[in-house]
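Board notes (copied after class):
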Amino acid sequence: MIQKAFLLLTIAYLFAPSLSFASARWYSGDQVTRGAGLYANYCAGCHKANAEGTENWRKTVSNGKYPPPPLNGTAHAWHHSIKVLANTIRDGGIKIGGVMPAFKDKLDARQTLDVIAFIQSKWEDKVYSAWLERNPRPQQEKVSAEKNVSDKNTDIDPRITRLQEFLPGRTISTPEKTPVNGIYQVRVGSKYIYVTEDGEYALIGNLLDLKNGINLTQRAQARDNVPLLKSFPEKDLIIFTAEGKEKAAISVFSDTSCPFCKKFHKEVPSLQKAGVSVRYIPFPRGLDKGPGYKDMLSVWCSEDRNKAMNIALGVSKGKLGNGNCGADKVLRAGFELGQRVGVRGTPTIYLPDGSSISGYVAAQKIIESLTQKKIIQ
């Protein structure tokens, strides 16, 4: 009994939910995480990476059809209930004169809701509030969609039944096979856990392929990180573009009050000369209670963000303006994304394959890593 209680506390601590996630919405951060990957695989090709859709979506194209509209809250997706959105994903639009294919054979009920969660995570609060006025009972809609959207069995997978008892209220991903016979991998938030086929035992930690020298857990996390990193709107990034032809782009979670972030920023010109773009994502440690929050608001509110970033990180002289443009939403979004991809401190650098490097690293080391991974030839 004592051992079970200790295990419960250990798992609960390791997989404690993020307090920063906007709990007012019907979906969880875990659903958005899973939905980002599904959206990238099935939806982004038409509706674009950040759900921005086709630029002239109100005008018909040569075949007389309308092109894919935005799903980010700027078109009409917010007019529809969860049930309608789920049915549209399931059945597509071809039967009613559209071009969207049906996904009932590719996405089950749970996955469909994850995609909707990701789409709605792109909606501004005012758009979500307007949708909520039309659909005041989203949890009931969710249950209804789970029952009706797919013919597949949506009962909890027996391999994770006991694990779910230890993690009540947390979303656990569908178990994936591993190279180890009878061992399956699941994701909870930004962390991974391994369960036996009968669901009676769980392992916490990294799964290593000793023969080939591969950390399979890190590889899985890197794979899952790619669509999440791509989901952050480009307009909210601060990009130091590569000189000449871009060979690679890295994503860097940074806090302007972090001394190692300032040290890393001095390496950026060397990366640019090597053909590497640096894409900054805000990660204000402690959010609005953190030491760098005010300056980061000023940076993201500046007309010339790159210049302001140089000032804030100490490579240029000057004064920062006032940070009162509403960029707090961008800073919070960056912080929440960082939590989903496993950021534990700043700077954290993500290579194009989703793998990460924590802390200060010299430009040459990053270039060597990119070359070793054959990202840079």
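Comment from the instructor: Confidence is low (pLDDT under 50) at residues 16-23, 149-154. The first strand starts at residue 176 and ends at 177.
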